[in-house]
Design brief:
Elements: H1 13-23, E1 29-30, H2 31-38, H3 43-56, E2 59-64, E3 67-72, H4 79-86, H5 88-101, E4 109-113, H6 115-118, E5 127-133, H7 142-159, E6 163-169, H8 173-179, H9 182-190, E7 192-196, H10 199-204
């Protein structure tokens, strides 16, 4: 590592992807396995990233016959920062759960869906939230609206991304289940529960 330029430890976007894979395991991985788990970039690109990270000392390489095995060097000065960055989506989920937990009017259900839930969004992607309002709360209720606005502002501050909120009342769920709009496919595929009843119960009408 160049101690005069510590930020240079990660010098290519693919480095971050490779490090995210290695942060998640203590088992030595072949370059081929890292490339498969990364699900981004070419095999050659992943090998180049691994070689860069080995030169920086962040990744350790061990020869095993005709293969090379790679592990994260958890003694490296940069690893705490790398682990923090690798777990940012988990931190976002925790902050969202805490935010919903502090609402005066609790949602019947809240979940994260779309690219943020899948982990494949970009800097311009919305943080998509699905929120179900209690049946006895009007859409224009001052407290409810303030909660939504404050959450959207918080998401913007946490991530720099716009919060795309899909809000329905509890009474509109039957229509959602009957008409099955495109948003429902996204919810079925990748939503992560944040508050209230489980999404599976909501969509089956069991909540």
């Amino acid at each position: 590592m160049d101690v005069s330029r510590p930020h240079g430890v990660i010098s290519h976007p693919l480095d971050s992807t490779v490090l995210r894979v290695l942060v998640g395991t203590t088992q030595p991985l072949t370059g081929h396995r890292v490339a498969r788990l990364a699900d981004e970039g070419s095999q050659q690109g992943v090998w180049k990233a691994l070689n860069r990270l080995v030169r920086e000392g962040v990744v350790e390489r061990e020869e095993a016959g005709s293969s090379s095995l790679y592990t994260l060097n958890r003694d490296h000065l940069a690893v705490p920062a790398i682990e923090l960055l690798a777990n940012l989506r988990g931190e976002l989920l925790e902050r969202l759960r805490q935010a919903f937990g502090g609402w005066k009017i609790k949602p019947i259900h809240a979940s994260l869906f779309g690219s943020a839930a899948r982990g494949d969004g970009g800097v311009g992607s919305d943080i998509d939230l699905f929120v179900v309002r209690p049946r006895n709360v009007d859409a224009e209720d001052e407290t409810w609206c303030r909660q939504l606005d404050e959450l959207a502002q918080a998401v913007r501050g946490w991530t720099g991304n716009h919060a795309g909120v899909v809000e329905l009342s509890e009474g509109e769920l039957s229509t959602l289940r009957r008409r099955r709009p495109p948003v429902l496919e996204g919810l079925d595929a990748d939503a992560i529960d944040l508050a209230g009843a489980d999404l599976a119960q909501i969509l089956k009408g069991e909540a």
